[in-house]
Design goal:
The complex is a heterodimer of chains A (452) and B (176). Chain A is 16% helix and 41% strand. Chain A is an alpha+beta fold and 452 residues long. Chain A has 2 domains: 169 residues, Rossmann fold (3-Layer(aba) Sandwich); 258 residues, 6 Propeller (Neuraminidase). In chain A, helix 3 packs across helix 5. The two termini of chain A are 24 Å apart. With 176 residues, chain B is α+β, with helices and mostly antiparallel strands. Helix content of chain B is 47%, strand content 12%. The longest helix of chain B is centred in the first third of the chain and has 30 residues. Classes of the chains: A alpha+beta (452), B alpha+beta (176). Chains A and B meet through loops of A and helix 1, helix 4 and strand 3 of B.
Chain lengths: 452, 176
């Protein structure tokens, strides 16, 4: 019965996923619709960009969870093999180890051969059944079993159209992740990042592992600081196409965008409020960079910070009560926080002379930022309760850390082989992934929310 | 040429600037017609002609106005004495040509956060803006903006290169 209820809830939640998938399609279409306006860019854009990211695991968790992902019963009916995508997601997470079970096929309603799976080394197995249900739709039921305790950990049902197959697979991978780690997964979330190839800049949106990326914006001028809306439908960013930094909000499904801040001076560092209604950003309309709040729909900015120093890089705490930001009011750039309505700020970082680019974990407990450590710029993590601080990277030019929606991974930009490359690291520092694109600089990552 | 680099809004924007330029041109053409009809008024048209001479000075390598870049020390946002005469020339030029506008683009070297560098580049642009105003430019003639570390003129990881990127550039209407 509980399972049935869950199915219902998940099924209900799924209906919103459909719009996420369509967004990819629409984003593509919008992109093509936008092209004619891109003057000389059209010729360039006609060539498909080969800026897909490839993921390598460069560090893994202490003990990998061995899991078997057999073929789903009826899987051949699906447009894309779901078990394969689930396997790839789990393998790329750095916390699972896939156990090869050959051509095994395990229907969702069948009790697995626990002894056999355990003897192959699998602690867990995913059983599943796929069926075509007419009107071009499919139904997949999956169930996770613990082979050591011989226990049914729960099942889930998804209905989807062919174009939603990949997203459904990512959701199933998230389901497995959550059942086996107790923490929600992130495979169904998306990344925004900027690819620079020659003098061409692209704001791209990809799946969480960097695959299937599509351009949201192409420009011959820099694009920086993408920031997701809490519902994952919009990305705000800074574009220099007008020879100065201007903040735009871009609707991913339609490709439509609008200027939210183009005041005299520079406009930058956008961050959505948790309710999605406002954007905190840095403006220099009063001289030095200060933090303001503007409605997402555009309108008059309200000044939030008042200092005689640089205030920039605002980010809201997930509860919406505070804004964390970078300021050099104390003589060196440090991270401060102030009430979201403005007012007195308190200093948050104290170690070192250069602490910038804050991001707060979804549970509000951890602060990720970039610290300068003996001349090297590295990602650091501060536990806001215990004040314990660790450095998560051993590189020298890290930028722009951004938490995964489950709070367990942080994506950031750095360099590898003289080229801009994205890295992801787990908050315990054990899992390390490298996401790189051939022949291009990848930078400015922003990890999006899980689809609602 | 620059148009090709831009997408729609910027193209529209530039289009406006260019059309502003061409209308300036037609004003001068009109002045020429007046000159033809009334020989006695020839001397009254010297202002536009001196103005075009003045504009030519912006690109005359022998004029201080042709120099547009102000370089800064590491972690510094002060216009150094060696650039005072350059800034003074532009400030006075703007005062003499009240219809001209400039965009000051501040830049930073590549070390550290993009957004913090954007704010640092802004401080350099503001320093130049304030200096121009000291020498007579009006505030509405000058917009100070920052490109942060996004548009380096030099990309090697050397101090020499970083120094070239710690810079503010003065761009006149039609040049940006």
């Amino acid at each position: 019965m509980r399972c049935h209820q869950r199915n219902f809830v998940q099924n209900f939640r799924f209906s919103t996923t459909s719009s996420v998938i369509t967004m990819h399609g629409l984003a593509h279409r919008a992109f093509h619709r936008f092209l004619p306006f891109m003057v000389a860019l059209a010729a360039l854009a006609a060539l498909p960009v080969r800026a897909q990211l490839t993921v390598e695991i460069t560090g893994a968790g202490g003990r990998l969870i061995p899991v078997a992902i057999p073929y789903l019963a009826g899987e051949e009916a699906l447009p894309t093999p779901i078990s394969q995508i689930v396997s790839q997601d789990l393998a790329k997470s750095g916390i699972f180890q896939l156990v090869d079970v050959g051509l095994m096929r395990l229907p969702e309603d069948q009790i697995p051969d626990y002894a056999n799976l355990a003897s192959r080394g699998a602690d867990a197995v995913l059983a599943g059944t796929a069926t075509a249900i007419g009107t071009g739709q499919y139904e997949v039921r999956v169930r996770v079993f613990d082979t050591r305790r011989q226990a049914d950990l729960g099942g889930i049902l998804y209905r989807f159209t062919p174009s939603q197959t990949r997203a459904t697979a990512h959701r199933i991978a998230d389901f497995v992740y959550e059942k086996l780690t107790g923490v929600p997964g992130y495979f169904a979330s998306r990344l925004a990042y900027v690819v620079k190839q020659g003098s061409r800049y692209e704001l791209r949106i990809s799946e969480a592992d960097g695959s299937n990326s599509v351009p949201a914006l192409i420009s011959q001028e820099p694009i920086i600081s993408p920031a997701w809306s809490p519902d994952g439908t919009k990305v705000a960013y800074v574009s220099f196409e007008a020879k100065k930094p201007v903040v735009y909000v871009h609707e991913l499904a339609t490709g439509q965008r609008r200027v939210v801040a183009n005041f005299k001076g520079s406009n930058s560092a956008p961050a959505f409020s948790p309710d999605g209604q406002s954007i905190a950003l840095a403006l220099t309309r009063d001289g030095i960079s200060q933090i303001y709040l503007v409605p997402v729909s555009g309108g008059a900015p309200v000044r939030l910070s008042r200092s005689n120093a640089i205030d920039t890089e605002p980010v809201f705490s997930p509860d919406g009560r505070y804004i964390y930001f970078t300021s050099d009011r104390g003589g060196s750039p440090q991270i401060y926080r102030m009430p979201a309505s403005g007012g007195a700020a308190e200093r948050v970082t104290f170690e070192g002379e250069y602490n910038v680019s804050p991001d707060i974990s979804p549970d509000g407990k951890l602060l990720a930022f970039v610290t300068r450590n003996q001349g090297r710029y590295q990602v650091a993590l501060l536990d806001l309760q215990t004040r314990q601080q660790i450095i998560l990277s051993d590189s020298t030019r890290d930028e722009s850390p951004s938490f995964a929606p489950n709070g367990r991974m942080i994506v950031y930009a750095s360099e590898s082989g003289g080229r801009g490359t994205l890295f992801a690291v787990s908050t315990d520092g054990k899992v390390r992934l490298r996401l790189s694109a051939e022949g291009a600089d990848v930078r400015e990552p922003a990890w999006g929310p899980l689809p609602r | 040429m620059n148009m090709k680099k831009l997408i729609t809004p910027a193209v529209l924007c530039l289009g406006l600037i260019l059309s502003a330029c061409s209308s300036t041109g037609s004003v001068e053409e009109g002045a020429g017609k007046v000159e033809d009809r009334n020989a006695g008024a020839v001397k009254t048209v010297t202002p536009p002609s001196s103005r075009s001479q003045a504009l030519a000075a912006l690109h005359d390598p022998n004029s201080p106005l042709s120099k547009r870049s102000i370089y800064f020390d590491f972690d510094s946002y002060v216009v150094k004495p060696e650039f005072q005469s350059l800034v003074q020339a532009h400030g006075r030029f703007l005062a003499q040509n009240p219809d001209l506008k400039v965009l000051i683009q501040g830049n930073a070297d590549e070390r550290g956060s993009r957004e913090y560098n954007l704010a640092l580049g802004q401080k350099r642009a503001e320093a130049v803006k304030n200096a121009l105003m000291t020498f007579g430019a009006r505030e509405d003639q000058v917009e100070a903006v920052s490109l942060g570390k996004e548009k380096p003129v030099c990309t090697e990881k050397t101090e020499e290169c970083y120094a070239k990127n710690r810079r503010a550039d003065i761009l006149y209407s039609g040049e940006f």
